[in-house]
Amino acid sequence: MAGKLYHNLIGGEWMASKSGQTLQNINPADRSDIVGIFPASNAEDVALAVAAAKKAFATWRLVPAPKRAEILYKTGQLLAERKEQFAREMTREMGKVLAETRGDVQEAIDEAYYVAGEGRRLFGVTVPSELANKFAMSVRMPVGVIGMIAPWNFPMAIPSWKLFPALVAGNTCVIKPAEDTPLSTYNLVQTLIDAGLPPGVVNIVSGYGPEAGAPLVEHPDVRAISFTGSSAVGSHVAQRAAANFKPVSLEMGGKNAMIVMDDANLELALEGALWGAFGTTGQRCTATSRILLHESIAATFTQRLVARAEALSVGNGLDDGIEVGPQVNEQQIETSTRYCEIAVAEGAKLLTGGKRLIDGPYAKGTFFAPTVFGSVTPAMRIAREEVFGPVVSLIEFSTFEEAIEIANSIDYGLSTALYTKDINRAFTAIRDLEAGITYINAPTIGAEVHLPFGGVKQTGNGHREGLGALDFYTTWKSVYIDSSNTLQRAQIDNAE
Ligand code: NAD
Q1: Do 119 and 213 have their domain in common?
Q2: How far does the centroid of ligand 1 lie from the alpha carbon of residue 285, in Å?
Q3: DSSP 83
Q4: Is the pTM of this model over 0.90?
């Protein structure tokens, strides 16, 4: 099926890329289905978009924050009306099952309502001055033009986590969606426009990372970069931005551990493991990719997990009853395949899966069998490196302390989970697990928009989305108002 032609959005106008190049948005469940043709933009397009955002900033920053917030609230209402259509289009471009793409749109709706409330807060701080007849306060100011670079696995939720707080704070934006899933960003931004967003406040430049993402990072008029993606690209982005001291918010990879203790509710842990490991076909930054099993329950748990993994129905996410959709593209299939080979070569035991599905209904898509590895040791690459596919490793341990040590023994620090009925162990894990998120008796996935989202170590550089995002999208201004009619010198005139 031939895809519809889309253009960049620059200053409120839809326009083709100056490069004259395009990219295809392909349905991963059926690669003969072209979802759309999108611009493969270059530095010239980025420069136009940044100029439009810079122009729009002059007026958008002066719109009262509660008014900006009203547009976001209206956006949430319109997204709710369009939820089913947008979810279907998202499944077609990205592959995850309909229940999950409905959840992805719902996350953008939740974010819209949450951030809309900030329009009447955006709290600053008022403190007493050390001098008489002097008033002291600090206020949040917008940063300016923000460049945003998004991954493909949450095609609407992640752009909403970036755009909405940036907008309520008075910034203008240029967003480069992931090349595999631009349509959901288009749907999101079109909804903002329909809700009343003025031209130029959000601009879309579609394209590949090096050609369209890198110029955004380097453009001198882009005041900050919000990036979500792999740690390898994030490191590159941060280094390029550092050249002109540009703040960068980085949300990157994970290798998330679920610990199952001997006293855990095993049925609950099993459900959590299946959802954590194979939800979104394992393509979540928070996916459960290591399951640490207490030795006394390891054999039972493993047997049941393998049986349940084999019973999962893999297929087109738009079809009823499908639990696991395709991987997003050929490259992800290659990565999963390569890591399965590495795991076997290092001595891990393939318990199920481990291969691409190619027969019958799978022939036209990029499907990979839900995969479980046993006999994994913490030193193996399959236990340390992000696969970003439906591949989970089982690691046995003897003591709780050992489990915490294994969980922490990697370079990433995004999400962790502990299944236990022991409240003391739960609190110890909350304290000792090196991660931005810890779940107790729930899997490693399932973040809510109004809590801080992000990780430590090679997962992030200290910023947070959700609660905390406004700290990135605003800059503090301290204000002193002297009503004494005399020169008052701080630290001098009031010193003993
Ligand atoms: P990726 O790093 O390949 O790409 C992310 C984005 O960066 C894309 O838009 C891409 O075009 C762009 N890009 C690539 N090269 C660039 C360059 N040189 N300069 C500027 N931009 C460039 O990641 P992906 O495959 O799209 O997404 C998967 C990764 O994202 C996984 O590692 C996953 O863990 C991570 N992720 C993290 C979070 C989080 O919040 N921590 C959420 C979702 C995904």
Answers
A1: yes
A2: 10
A3: H
A4: yes
